[in-house]
Every structure is written in structure tokens, then in C-alpha cells.
Amino acid sequence: MLLEVRDLHVEFRTRDGVAKAVNGVDYAVDAGETLAVLGESGSGKSVTAQAIMGILDTPPGKVTGGEIVFQGQDLLTLKEDERRRIRGAEMAMIFQDALSSLNPVLSVGDQLGEMFVVHRGMSKKDARAKAVELMDHVRIPAAKERVKDYPHQFSGGMRQRIMIAMALALEPALIIADEPTTALDVTVQAQVMDLLAELQREYHMGLILITHDLGVVADVADRIAVMYAGRIVEQAPVHDIYKAPAHPYTRGLLDSIPRLDQKGQELYAIKGLPPNLMNIPPGCAFNPRCPMARDVCRTDVPPLYEVDGGVDGMDKRDDMDGGRTSACHFWTECLHG
Amino acid sequence: MVEPILEVGGLVKHYPLTQGVLFKRQVGAVKAVDGVDFTLHKGETLGIVGESGCGKSTVAKMLVNLERPTQGLIKYKGEDITKLSGKALKSVRRNIQMVFQDPYTSLNPRMTVGDIIGEPYDIHPEVAPKGDRRKKVQDLLDVVGLNPEYINRYPHQFSGGQRQRIGIARGLALRPEVIVADEPVSALDVSVQAQVINLLDRLQSDFELSYLFIAHDLSIVRHISDRVGVMYLGRIVEIGKDAEIYDHPTHPYTQALLSAVPVPDPEAREHRERIILAGDVPSPTNIPSGCRFRTRCWKARERCALEVPALAVPAEFRHTNGPEAHDSACHFAETLSVSPSTPGGAVPPEEPE
Asked: How far apart are CA B143 and CA B163, in angstroms?
């Protein structure tokens, strides 16, 4: 495995109390694999990514437990200067908002070239040539002329390409893309996602795609991890989860997508609101919103159940790829119901 | 046919670009909206889709008179409201209200919910006498699914979805006939979006509202709209009933837009042909001659650079009565199924020359 996150816990200590943003997250990504982390705002999907990258705001944020094993090494035991050498070179991140992630007073060429100057000790001239090469690679037209331009002179889609170029510069083994196309228009989103998928294949990178869009996930992911209130509530291969979700939250998300045959009818809506992270409900965090909740859900935190689709005398579903987990006491009912 | 409640004709909004300090001269214009026509009937929902910068929000602002059109008509029940001022304008504006995109910035953080929802009554006191207002505001909170006891709370005490409900309550306060909703759910979480859409749907039938629903999420627009208009660079390029647009699009831009939407079905991944448009939307200061989509269109020919295509039923479909016979501003309109349910439906475009 390229990256394994084990039982990760992250807290934010604020004036108003302790917000438990990540409460025991496990996931793994292999080289060449795309893992989509799906969740709403506040589900902890971005905080997990920041902990992996080592760019968590500390304080108030603090990793309070767990391991992040990257290429056989627990990152949480490393010193900051060792982590800095990994960051950018071995793992890189693409952010949602390219305009605020790029430095507005440096030309894009300088920002791209900086990667090579800092990590590879290249001369400025060589770094500039590398920057042009990268911009070409992410298909920015007239790269040679545009290398001197500043971020505001590019369109949203082009800026996101520059972010991708910057992440790819040192050919990292892992890329974390946090909502990379959320700020883009549909037609541009398609261009950028295509480019990202193509480059991933070319470099055989592991990709963690953080998103809230079930459509984007279905298009590119190999595996999906669904997060809710700082936990992964369900993890499965992409085909399985759309066919038969094994957690009521996943089911609710899929059911609330408007479908053609429901036109004019009321949309399915998950009732209630996502929980306050300072005050996560006891038992299963989803229980106040869950249509299947029973007494045990209000008291016992569900463990991660292995989902094999063949328990309780129900038919084993042959159309499933397997290897999935669900954090629901009643996952069998959800899967078959 | 009954008279439409809103009729928009030749609507144009140009923002001048000036140069010079003392003697300002106009050197060009941002053509945000460049000739838009549509009608809206009572109880109907017209969805407007398009990408950022296509002018859909500017159209919304002109309808509620937050912007004055450069040219064109906006007729409310047959009366052109663009020329009105003073009292007459005020009384018309009461009937056309707006719900904004961002529930975080569109509510004044220093006002209580009661003051926010009740503020329209200060401007139009004839709707609710002073002593009656608190009751009215509480009724509105109840209507949008919030606890009436929250009347003294401040916006920051609510979540995004609840704030949007407050914004909707404010829009309803004056009992308008038309609601212009500009991206009302795009700032909300997925699990909350469906709640707000259902609320808007219910309010429409309860109060016989007409909606102009602006959004970029095509599946939500289809769910809520009776008719849909597709905008590109300041103009409507195609408009028709929802099934006509989504299942039988004839304009290449609509086809590309629909094919680019990610579909929440991994099975569709393999047999889906997406039309990936080349390049970016041109600048609205420098709109291409002829058809404004031609710079990204794979079908563009010489005629497209010379002649502006009119928004009308294309000649080849004029005598059919099928779903493809709807308004489409393309010289070479043809049907192309881009619905992901039909494998191999879409043909990938050839490289534009």
C-alpha cells in the first residue's frame, strides 16, 4: 500500500470547546488507484487530507491519535523538516480555489519553477524551462508566452491546470485533490477531470479525490469512502456502492439525487442537519437523522462491519466486488432493503 | 392563451468600459446580457441554466430592478416596468421578489430574523399594519419550516439550509406573484439541497407562485422546471419544455453541456461519450461575430461567422410536431441524444478547425 491511514483522530481546540473533526478514520490508497472521499462540509474529509499532508493549522488543530503510514513510514513520527522534504516531492495537493492558492504577486512561471529550485536545487533558468514544459503538459496554450503571466490573467480552468502542473512538478507518488473542480463550470470541469485522470495513469500515482459530488465520483473513482461526522461510515468499490449502499447515510445521499422518473414528486430528503462537531450524538452519529435508527443506535457506536452480502440466510449477491465495510448496526437490512 | 405574467423582450445590459480620467470616453462594453427574450406564465417554473459569466444573474437582477436594462422590455402583466419610477415602480416591485444564492452574505448579521423577514413591511406598510407584523413573520417562519420562536435569533445561529429558509421567508413576505431564485441551493450541502427544493416546490403550489429558477446544476433544474432556457454569453441559445431540452437538444452548446454533466452511475462510465469543448468562453467584451458559440463549436462553418442565428424553431424541424421542434439558435441544428442512458448516443466532435 502506498498510503495507509489508521484510526486517525484530529481535534480542534477552540474557545467554545473541543471540536472532534476526525474520529477514527481508516483508509488506504495504492499506486495507480483513485480513492474518492465523499462527504458534506464538516464531515472531516478535508481535515483528514490536511493531516496527511501535514498542513493542519496547529493550534487549534491537533492530531490526537492514529498513524499515517506512507511508503512504509509513519509520517506522524517524523520531524517537521523531514516532512517538508516529502511534501511536494512525494505527495502533493490540489486545492479547490486556484485563485486564492496561487500567489498573486508572482508569475506562474516563478511559482512552478520554485518547486525545482527548492527541492531539486536547479538554477532559475533551468527551472523556468521546466515550468514551460509542465504548462505544455497540462495543455495550456502558448505556454512559452504565458509563463510570465500572473494568476489573475488566466481563466478559472487554466488556473486549475496550473495547480495541477504544480502538484505534478516533482512527480509525486500521491496526489490529494480537494474539490478540484467544484469552483469550475461543467464543461471546464469535464476538461480538468479528464486531464487529471490521464496524468494519473501516465505517472501511475495514487489519487485521493475529495468531493461532495456523487456524479464526479461515479465518473473517476475506483473506491469510495463516505464520511460523516469525522468517521468513514462506508467504504466500497465504486460499482457496489451505487448498486446497493450498505449505510443509510449513503442510501440517503443517493436517493436525494433528482431522478427523471420522480419529476413533479417530492425529492427524498435526509431529515435534519449534520451534527455539531462539539456535540456529536452518542451511539451512531447519524442516528437522529436515520430512518432505520433503533435503541441500540442511540447507545452503541457501530464498529466497522465487513460487508460480504451473504449473511443471515440472505442471498449472496454475485454482482458485488466485495472488500467493503459499513459502520451501521443494521447494514444487512440497508444492503438488501 | 392567457397573458404571461412576465414577458421579456430584447433585454440588453451593457456595462461601459471607459478610459481617461477627466474626459472619460467609452472604449467598449461588457456585454453581459445581449438580447434575451422569454415569457413566464402564472404558476410556471422557467429554469435558466448556463455557465458563469453567461449573464443569467444579470437577467435576474434586471427583473427585480437591481439593474436597469440598457435596452429592451420587461412586461409585468402587459405593462413595461423598465420605464416606471416612483410609486408605480414600487408597487410593481412588490410582486417580483428575489431569493439570493448565498445565505451567508444576503442576511444582515446585525438584524434579528424577525427584523430581516419583517423589513419588507416597512417599505410596503399597506401589506401588514404595524401591530400585525410580528404575527405575520411568525406565520412565515412556520411556512418555511422554521420554529416561530426563533424570531429573535440572529442569522449566525442558523445553519446554511436554515438561513436559506429565512431568505425564502423574506422573499414571500409581500405575497409576490413571481420569485426570482438565483442559485438558491448551490451553496448548500447535498443532503440539505433536497429539503430546500421540496420547500420551494410546496410553496409554489400553496401560493400559486411563478418561479424563474437560475442554477447551474442541470439535474435540479430539470426536476423543478416546466421549461428550461440555456444561456451562453449573454443570450438564450435554446429554450423549450424540460423534456425537449434534456432529451432532444438541438443546439450544440446544450448538447455539450448535457454530455459533460457527471452522472451518478459508474456503469455509465464505459459507454458514455462526452463532448469536451475546446477552450474557454470568449470575453463578453469581445463577442465573436455571427453565432457567439462558433469559436468552440465543432460544427461551425462559414455561415456561422457571418449570420447571427435567430432563436426560433429551426427550419428542418418546422413541419414536424415532435419534441425537437422547439426554439434553438443554430444554423445547423440537429438532434443528438446525449442522455447517458442510451449507450453510444453521443458522437464525439471532430477537432474544430
From this structure: 14
Q: Would the CB atoms of A187 and B193 count as touching at under 8 Å? A: no
B270 class by beta-carbon count within 10 Å (0-12 exposed, 13-18 middle, 19+ buried): exposed
Residues from chain B that touch A273, judged by Cβ atoms under 8 A, are: 159, 161-162, 192
Across the interface, whether the CB atoms of B268 and A191 are under 8 A apart is answered no
Pick the residue from chain A with its C-alpha nearest to B193.
A269
Residue of B nearest to A155 (CA): B280
> Is B267's CB within 8 Å of A158's CB?
no
Tell if the CB–CB gap between A260 and B260 is shorter than 8 Å. Answer: no
In chain B, positions 270-309, which contact chain A (CB-CB < 8 Å)? 274, 276-277, 279-280
Nearest-CA distance from A190 to chain B in Å? 6
- Residue of B253, B236, B232 lying closest to B53 (CA atoms): B232
**Cross-chain residue pair B223–A262, CB shorter than 8 Å:** yes
Structural domains of chain A sorted by starting position, each given as residue range(s) with its CATH number in brackets? 3-221 (3.40.50.300), 227-336 (no CATH)
Q: Spell out which residues of chain A touch residue B161, defining contact as CB-CB under 8 Å.
A: 273
C-beta atoms of B195 and A216 within 8 A: no
Q: Which residues of B touch A216 (CB under 8 A)?
A: 262
pLDDT tens for each residue of B202-247 = 999 999 999 999 988 888 899 999 999 999 999 999 999 998 998 8
Answer whether B32's CB lies under 8 Å from B70's CB.
Answer: no
Q: Is A54 helix (H, G, I), strand (E, B) or coil?
A: coil
Interface contact flag, B191 A217, Cβ < 8 Å: no
Enter the pTM of the model: 0.83
Residue type, B232: Y
Domains annotated for chain B, with CATH where assigned, are 6-18+28-225 (3.40.50.300), 264-328 (no CATH)
Successive 10-residue mean pLDDT values, chain A, 337 residues: 92 88 91 91 89 88 91 90 88 86 91 90 91 89 88 86 89 91 80 87 92 86 92 90 89 84 78 85 91 90 79 47 81 82
